[in-house]
Amino acid sequence: MNTAVVVRTGLTLARRQVWHAGRPQRGLLPLTLVLLLAGATWLGLGTVFDTLASTQAPAAWSANVLAWAFMLATLMGFVGALHVAVSALVADRDLERLRATPLASHELLALKAAATLPRTLPPVIGIALPAALAFVAAQPDTPGAAWRIALAMLTLWAVPMALALGVALPLLRMAPPSRLRESLAVLATVAFLAGWLANAFWVPRVLSDGTALAAGLRALPAAPAWAPANWAALLISASEPLTHALACATACVLALAGAAALAQRLLGSLHARLSERRGRTVHARARRAPTLANAFLRRDAALAGRDWPVLLDALAQFALWTLLPLAVLPVAPLPPLELARAMLITLCVSLGNDVAARALPLERESLAWARLSPVGGARWVRMRALGVAIVGGTLIALALVLVSVALHLELAESLDALAFAIAAAASLGGAGLALGAHLGDPAWTDPRAMLGPGGRSAAAVTLLTLAAGWLALSHVVSPLRPLGPLALVSIVLAGLALGAAALQIAAHRLEHQEFTSR
User: Fold this and answer.
1) Mean pLDDT by 10 residues, the chain (518 residues)
2) CA–CA distance from 311 to each of 307, 308, 337, 432, 435 (Å)?
């Protein structure tokens, strides 16, 4: 294999995914998000390291914080690389052409590992690298910081990547690739949700209170001595780094060599077995539904059962968005009524983005029947909106009960929060259906990619803008006491009007959309 040409080609393709022909490409958004994460990590951990240095705290405290930051990057890198490895080894479009070349299994594995760098490096760039730089900035007397950081970052990428490859290959022999990818996508969502909750409830309190910072770092357990992430942290923080450098280099070599040996043994037979599969069987019933609405609702249930990771991903996002307003409580405490309104409105962002926007792309190529069947695009959208309304209404009712009990709201306050939730759900749900009709990708393979990279950006901007309007209205009008019946009815009617206009846009799109076979 001509390594120089492969590397040069990979760099060219990576650059074109970010910027090409004088225009930004879809790879610019993930890069921007990673840089924002890196900036947030730099500011947060930089504050911690500077505070420890100024108060002359024990050096072991800073080293331990750095080790746990590296542990977080390692865990995120392993989960992300596991999902990426499964997709790269069995689902990449160029896999058939690469198998036809005289590449050995370990060379094919190395090529796919290099090709997935843009998807496996974000934990290193977004968390580990800014953490290491913040530590070195607070400890300027660290000799040889450049090579220490370089070797540590290589360890934090190579070890999780090799472990992910070593786990993915046996798993692919035991489970269907499609179901394995779906399960790993759910696992990545759960890991993201857990990390977000820790940052939302622990980090703001720690950084805003010096006493809590000292107590939290004193109680923070030591990182596992056997973990390569701990070795990488000691490589940067220790005064004598040679022993830890040797440990990191050995870990990289052994991990990559083990992954290459496993690929040499399993990859060929795995591809031969996967090439024999033609698809999967889907069991269905042909019992006639009494009404069109019942038929669509039954179809919604079948679609959700077929692509169940979409449902689990949506539920995780519901929890994330509902709890989001609690993250600002350490900085700006809110009255109970205002907090209840904000929690239900932010839940509606998830309703628009994770349920409504996915309702039409969930049908994949069968969405062509919206135009070909006698139902018509307008009725088709209304029936899909009915299913979205049932799911959203159930979740909003459950959230309202939980919020009312947790915040001790009176009946009038609960009705006030419900009115804002209905208005926000109607407008954001309608906007989500319109976005799904215009930007949905029928060939999606991951729940997060149902709108495509550009579609996700447009949906985020549109839905967050609408939600910001409802949040601003809820903060301006009587945040301490509930509104009167006339005002609440006006708010609900305004939200329903916006939702109806968005549904009309979605219906117009379906009635004029051209569908082509692949």
Assistant:
1) 61 68 65 78 83 80 88 83 69 64 70 74 88 88 87 92 80 60 56 50 49 59 87 90 92 88 73 54 59 75 68 63 54 73 85 82 75 74 86 87 86 91 91 86 69 74 87 84 90 93 86 62
2) 7, 5, 30, 16, 19
